Amino acid sequence: MSDEFENIYDTFRAFLDLFTPAEAVKRLEQIGASAETIQQIRERHEQQTLQIKELEEPRSVVMGNRDTWYTGPRDNDKCWPAMAKLLLKSGWSQDPAIDSLDDSSSRIVSLLNHPREPAFSARGLTVGYVQSGKTTNFTAVMAKAADRGYKLFIVLAGIHNGLRRQTQARLVQQLVEPNPTLWSQLTGLDKDFTPRENPASYFGGNNKTRVLCVVKKNATVLRKLTNWLTEASDHLQDCPALIIDDEADQATVATKSINPLIGKLLDSLPKSAYVGYTASPFANLLIDPSAKDLYPEDFIVNLPKPTELQGYFGTEVLFGRDTIDGEDPEDIDDGFDMIREVPKDDVSCVRPAKRIEVEGFTPTITDTLRDAINYFWLSTAARRVRGTGNQHATMLIHTSVNTVVHESFRAPLEYLQAKMRGALGDTEVLDGLRELWDAETARVPAETFHEQKVAFEKLLPELPSVLDDCRIIMDNSYSTDRLDYENGPVVAIAVGGNTLSRGLTLEGLSVSYFVRAASAYDTLLQMGRWFGYRRGYADLPRIWMTDELREWFRHLATVEAEMRRDIDVYMSEDKNPLTFAVRLRTHPALRVTAAAKMKNAVPAASSYGGKRVQTRYFQTDSDWLLANQEAAKELVAAAAQTGTKQDRRPRDGRFVFRNVPHEHVINFLEKYNFHKRSQECDAGLITDYIRKRVRNAGALGRWNVAIVGKPVGTDEENFKFASGVAVKRVIRTRLDTSEKDYVDIKTLMSTRDIGVDLIGGHNARSEEDLHAERSRQLPDVGLLLLYPIDKDSDLGPSKPSRKPLAVPQHVVGVALVFPYPGGDDSTVEWNYVSADLSGIDIEEEDVSLLEVEEAE
Q1: Is the link from the previous residue into 178 a cis peptide, with omega within 30 of 0?
Q2: In whole angstroms, what is the distance from residue 478 CA to residue 455 CA?
């Protein structure tokens, strides 16, 4: 392109700061640009817009599919380049860290309204990961919006002073200090909002500075801010405002005081874009979309997922998760071996069982708590030997919300510290520490994270100074001795509750002792302060918790994966937040969010079409297991008698009985014992679905029943289903838990088993290919697979996270594969909830809300 064209294009981009794209084109016509030049400009702008829309991360859904006005940073920008320079100087890599932040923040800014629109009121939601850099992302969004003409920036920074102060400090460092003449501040490090004189002077036409205000979600503060802005109402007509709601699920949704006040704040601003940020968006996704509230009706965005190779630890990395539809189980990891069990009997030693026992409670330093503390001191000494990564080292003890309980830990912990300091010359004590260190470093090899193990002899000289530097801190709403990372390196054991449960970063957190009870997803997830970046010590974090809590966090990891996939899938289907509702999987022991925030939730409908389900939990009761064996043998006998064709391959460990009437499958499902934890294997839902498909669509009337084992062996090695039908038992080990009444094998079937009854099924490369081939060959036939599992199932020491199955009887595992429905699928009520979209009036031809997951 010529220099003349580039000059005209620069003029067009300058116009975009003042006008919408259509108006900017009209201005080009007025200054004499030719039709050919204007067309070339349109094409370049559309190409840049498309690049923004197609960024792989973050994925989003956008209302109206509007063209974006923002196509990325420009050379004359001030705020974003200064912030990027600071990040680079602080150790961020340009690729991928800063480039990824640049892309994702540009995507979000492109979803905001043009600042020169006469009036607007937008609602959006950004879904991140706990402790993954949400603050950095919204700071980048603010920087880019400021570069384009947004003037007022209000950050709602949680409900605690610590988080508000931390957020203020970060924004001052990354936005204000690099360009001090561009900004005016209404709040300070130690000062929440108080009304200033002459509010109009901040927003009048002669004042070109951006206005920054960081406030708590506190009724008094929000009321003062709204009243103050009302006094300046005559000057707000041309004041585009960006409101960032950090921890947007906390206090914002379904509260009698804060929620209406946020609404009034937004109503006082003629041009406002509200963007919520949270890692636990469950409450936000269940807001009534038809009410005048904060449902994210304009867009929902998934932030990029950091990886453990970047030093980030999220729910899935630590706890693993279950597979979700369409995934290959072999691609899903169990998580790193960093969780240590706190026996149930220990809980009453560190947390009062009843409220009446709070006063006078004295905690006991149990063996597990002592191990956790000793390991914290050892890992801190090892980090000093390495001399890399975060200079701070923190341990979290979180057993109760009660501040009296927090204080009761002080004396026992100080006594333990003093005792250890005086025992470092004791050979027996040192042998115990060495044994603990060697055991832990063997379970999580440092080399996995490109680190080198620190030998005990090298860390030992650092232990005395670690113990001397270590502070015991009670951090709660009543304490005065709080965690402060701004005045030099910190080594601290922090005992706390709610003030340490959300938003606030515990710098250098390496060890957590966590037995705090919780009743909802969002509460539990936000308590996990151990999530975050662990650069330089990624091999060292450990968490002590009960097995029940561990299972809950694993469930949460699955919920998160499904939730984020829903957002991605609906984007590809050209949906928006008013025509789809994200499903949230439920749990028998946990609420999705607080009851008040779920009052508008509705059960979400789903279908088994195109899915596979499989058993993974089995009781250890002998009669329970024998009953399943008998149910399987009855099915095979019936299949052998009534099936029209048989494929017997005992040398391959395979039998397939074809065209078995569905009544035999239903009879089997009603007799087989599915474990109560296997929520997707609900015999009632499955049989109801089969009957509906048979009745309504004439499908699933016939089934193929397959046996999947190993090539036939000796009588002692085989499992006999019926006369002439025997295979060698397969091996399925269990996950390492302390549960005695059931075992969890995690994965039963291999992806290739989906095609066991297909011609050429072994040639398919993916699950998607197998389902496509099933739709071609057997579009109306279901597949039921039986797996005889050896009761001992031992792989030896090759996988320390796995243990021998060790149950009293051989296990029969079951999997079912459902073909994709050819037409309208019969749906069943599923274990999900979502927002209720039934009150939304969408002007669209032939829209059926039944096709879009009805929600809360």
Answers
A1: no
A2: 41
- Name residues whose C-beta falls within 8 Å of residue 663's C-beta, 6 or more positions apart in sequence: none
Backbone angles phi, psi at 427, to 5 degrees: -60, -40
Name 620's Cβ contacts closer than 8 Å, sequence gap at least 6: 740, 741, 742, 743, 807, 808
Assess contact for 679 and 685: CB atoms under 8 A: no
What pLDDT digit, counting tens, does each position of 640-691 carry? 999 888 888 888 899 999 999 999 999 999 999 999 877 678 888 899 889 9
CA distances for 705 relative to 282, 382, 647, 680, angstroms: 40, 56, 10, 20
What is the average pLDDT score of the chain? 87
**CA 719, 725, 728: angle at the middle one, nearest 5?**
35
Residues of the chain with pLDDT > 90, as a percent, come to 53
Instruction: For the chain, count helices (H), then strands (E).
Output: 25, 31
In angstroms, the CA 71 to CA 144 distance is 11
User: For tokens 């006005």, what's the residue?
Assistant: 69
Residue 160 binned pLDDT confidence (cut-offs 50, 70, 90): confident
CA distance 350 to 353: 9
For residue 791, give both structure tokens. 């009761």
Name the β-bridge partners of 124.
Answer: 275, 299
Q: Which two tokens stand for residue 3?
A: 């220099």
**306 contacts 856 by C-beta, under 8 angstroms:** no
Alpha-carbon distance of 61 to 80, in angstroms, equals 25
pLDDT tens digits along 360-397: 899 999 999 999 999 999 999 999 999 988 899 999 99
Buried b (16+ CB within 10 A) or exposed e, 333-343: ebbbbbbbbbe
| Most confident of the following: 112-116, 582-586, 625-629, 639-643 | 625-629
Residue 801 near residue 731, CB atoms below 8 Å: no
Query: Cβ of 820: how many Cβ atoms within 10 Å?
Result: 14
Determine the pLDDT at residue 796. 74
pLDDT reading at 574 higher than 80:
no
